[in-house]
């Protein structure tokens, strides 16, 4: 398998962490989808990463689709329950984490996209997206409470998705300082940082 992505993308990182936890072999191909010479459209017509290219050449995209597939490839470290309320809980955590990242990306691109003049940038739009990021992180902290992990007592996709969202937020928006505001999330992220899967995929 070949994973096309960027080391700065939190969605790509989520896939890379899952691959590490599942002990799956793959080739990582760096791709800047914003560069003029990007070739990502040849694998994903939407022009986004991550994109997983299988041995036969077929491509799979969207991090949620990819991690769902990867969890079926090996019985090692099952990350997504197969059915029922437990599965819905994990997928809801993932949706919350992805929503924080979605809002963060919209906020960041409004602020830095070079093809938009400064006078065209909307502070109201950026403030709206920042509000979503902060509300999402607060909801994570409330949902985690005093539990050792987001969905029970074992690592799951919930924790991987939340960890990637929090690390990316700290990477791109250090001024938010969610650690001080939400010590329970700080404890969780410190625990995740002890895992090789997180150490080896830090955003850069």
From TrEMBL:
Listed InterPro entries: Glutathione-S-Trfase_C-like (IPR010987), Glutathione-S-Trfase_C_sf (IPR036282), Glutathione_S-Trfase (IPR040079), Glutathione_S-Trfase_N (IPR004045), GST_Omega/HSP26 (IPR050983), Thioredoxin-like_sf (IPR036249)
Domain spans labelled GST C-terminal: 83-204
Keyword Iron-sulfur: no
GO molecular function: transferase activity
Annotated ranges, domain GST N-terminal: 1-78
Keywords for this protein: Transferase
Pfam families: GST_C_2, GST_N_3
One term under GO cellular component: cytoplasm
Lineage top rank: taxon: Bacteria
SUPFAM superfamilies in the record: GST C-terminal domain-like, Thioredoxin-like
Listed name of the protein: Glutathione S-transferase
Species name: Pseudacidovorax intermedius
């Amino acid at each position: 398998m070949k994973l096309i992505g960027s080391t700065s993308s939190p969605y790509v990182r989520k896939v890379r962490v899952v691959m590490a936890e599942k002990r799956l072999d793959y080739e990582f191909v760096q791709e800047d989808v914003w560069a003029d010479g990007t070739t990502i459209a040849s694998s994903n017509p939407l022009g986004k990463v991550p994109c997983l290219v299988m041995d036969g050449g077929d491509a799979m995209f969207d991090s949620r689709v990819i991690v769902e597939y990867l969890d079926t490839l090996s019985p090692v470290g099952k990350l997504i329950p197969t059915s029922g309320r437990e599965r819905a809980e994990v997928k809801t955590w993932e949706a919350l984490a992805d929503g924080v990242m979605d809002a963060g990306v919209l906020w960041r691109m409004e602020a830095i996209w070079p093809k938009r003049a400064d006078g065209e940038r909307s502070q109201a739009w950026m403030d709206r997206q920042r509000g979503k990021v902060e509300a999402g992180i607060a909801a994570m902290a409330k949902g985690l409470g005093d539990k050792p992990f987001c969905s029970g007592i074992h690592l799951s996709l919930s924790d991987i998705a939340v960890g990637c969202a929090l690390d990316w937020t700290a990477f791109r928006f250090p001024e938010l300082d969610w650690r001080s505001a939400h010590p329970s999330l700080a404890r969780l992220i410190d625990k995740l940082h002890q895992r090789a899967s997180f150490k080896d995929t830090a955003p850069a």
